[in-house]
Amino acid sequence: MKRSLSDSPTPPPSTPKKSKAKNSAAQPATPTTTGSTWTNERKAVLARICIETAYKNMDWDKLAAETGMTEAQCKNQLTPGRNNLRKTVLDLFGK
Fold first, then answer.
1. What contacts 92, CB < 8 A, 6 or more positions away?
2. CA distance 55 to 82
3. Which residues have CB under 8 Å from 55's CB, separation 6+?
4. What DSSP element (H or E) covers 89?
5. Which residue windows does the record flag with biased composition (Low complexity) (predicted)?
6. Is 0.70 surpassed by the pTM of this model?
7. Backbone dihedral region of 68: left (phi > 0), alpha (psi from -120 to 50 degrees) or beta?
8. What pLDDT score was predicted for residue 49?
């Protein structure tokens, strides 16, 4: 004799376990006096450092292959002192 699915016992509903609250005393709060607002100057510094790091660590072969440009053309886009992507990004923040 076949049993229908409705005859089978259903497990009791499980309740999610509550996660333990982190002790806020163990993690010091970030002081608000440090100026935690992202000003355009701070964004410009972040963008500049990201661009410099990208320039130093970029896989230029891969980038050139993906863009269809030469390595030199790709490098020129991140070189300081030119009308290029680097200048465009930094100009966004008034730098």
1. 47
2. 15
3. 75, 78, 79
4. helix 85-91
5. 22-39
6. no
7. left
8. 96
